[in-house]
Amino acid sequence: TVVDTPGYGDAIDNTDSFRAIIQYIDEQFERFLRDESGLNRRNKVDNRIHCCFYFISPLGHGLKPLDIEFMKQLHNKVNIVPVIAKADVLVKKEVLRLKKKVMEEIEKHEIKIYPLPDCDSDEDEDYKDQLRQLKESVPFAVCGSNTTLEVRGRKVRGRLYPWGVVEVENPEHCDFIKLRTMLITHMQDLQEVTHEVHYENYRSERLAKGAPVPKRTTSLPDHEKGDDKDRILQEKEAELRKMKEALAKMQAQMQHKN
Amino acid sequence: TVVDTPGYGDAIDNTDSFRAIIQYIDEQFERFLRDESGLNRRNKVDNRIHCCFYFISPLGHGLKPLDIEFMKQLHNKVNIVPVIAKADVLVKKEVLRLKKKVMEEIEKHEIKIYPLPDCDSDEDEDYKDQLRQLKESVPFAVCGSNTTLEVRGRKVRGRLYPWGVVEVENPEHCDFIKLRTMLITHMQDLQEVTHEVHYENYRSERLAKGAPVPKRTTSLPDHEKGDDKDRILQEKEAELRKMKEALAKMQAQMQHKN
């Protein structure tokens, strides 16, 4: 599922603009907590937000005060993956400069973005290399398109400018492929971090101050109890399929929201 | 002279963001009023703001609430020329759609932008055609660059992307040339409107409520008293030269503010 927040930050006074987003995230946590604490916990639906792409304007020179405030308010609730939007307005040097600036500011303001996992030393070299590349690319600089064009005989998803065609899935043009790889490869980790870090944060705060919620007997989600490997495999496949659909939808939305 | 306002609209709460701009414009009017009312009025310097390029984000889908509010607060003080910034992020269809949307919103919210003058029926056809083209192009969609590149043997001011070169001075790529033509051709009209409409507004309000200011005996500015044609010509040439310098500077600043 993709949840979009069009119009975020467009107001004159954006002081309250993240409230709706925080509320939405908390509602999903709350629902999960209720389901998990109820009788029929086998069939609970997981609508928690596992990943938040935070789109940074390519036109600024780093993070704006609103970006910093948003990330600080949300980094303990959700996995934030910073993304530079519509990066086809930046020449290569500008992309690199903006990425560097954004990372410096994230560090300076002690913002916790989603940490890509470290790789075990026994992983194969290709995987290590991929992970290194992904880590170096953050914040991913992407552009999107919902039209396919023909470029030198190939069908590509792209944007046709008078001076050339931007190919969304060309790694020379933008980081779209990297972002997709990250999302698919680390989907499970994103879910685990959500469950073990963000949800646990929510749960303990909630239990400390809120109304009593029936006791929880285990900390592992149902689908990881591993007595039925086939089922788990099927679930993962369904998840991947859903992710791909969501990505295609996201791709279409990114550029043409109206 | 070019006055830039970097960082405008970047704050979380932008409620007060035009105050500094309004104050600056009023200060220039005030100084002119003082000079004009003083003894040595021959040597007064005109630092009034004759034209305000209002840069609209190419990433939105029209005017933002801040844009509308800014223009409403300032349209009785200064000639507003709306411009779509960094328009090289938009494909042709998107440029046309955004221009249409912006003009519809300007009309709907009764915002008074600088009105390009109507042309007399006895003007030559080329001029009429140019004026028609300029009017159709508002808001001008521009992009800037401070680097020159070589494209098929020609030196051009442009931006080098992996998928092609955006040429700032190519009318197929953006409206920069049109914006420059507008500014140079209608510089005198911009000054006249400033003097006869915006400054008169300021002056009458100021006189109605403010401390008394010595009476003004004529409403024509000195340089239009026309007893010294050579001097006027020289002045106009100097003005044009200054405009061209300002334009080059603006061009450089537009894309690379840091």
UniProtKB/TrEMBL annotation, chains A, B:
Name the UniProt key words of this record, in alphabetical order: Cell cycle, Cell division, Coiled coil, GTP-binding, Nucleotide-binding
Instruction: Tell where it localizes.
Output: Cleavage furrow
One annotated GO molecular function is:
GTP binding
Q: Which domain of life is it from?
A: Eukaryota
Chain spans, region Disordered: 205-233
Q: Which GO terms describe its biological process?
A: cell division
Q: Give the CC-aspect GO terms.
A: cleavage furrow; cytoskeleton
Gene3D superfamilies, per the entry: P-loop containing nucleotide triphosphate hydrolases
The UniProt regions of compositional bias labelled Basic and acidic residues, in chain numbering, are 221-233
Q: By its UniProt entry, which CDD domains does this protein fall under?
A: CDC_Septin
Ranges of residues in domain Septin-type G: 1-209
Q: Name one Pfam family in it.
A: Septin
Q: What is this protein called?
A: Septin-type G domain-containing protein
Native organism is Homalodisca liturata
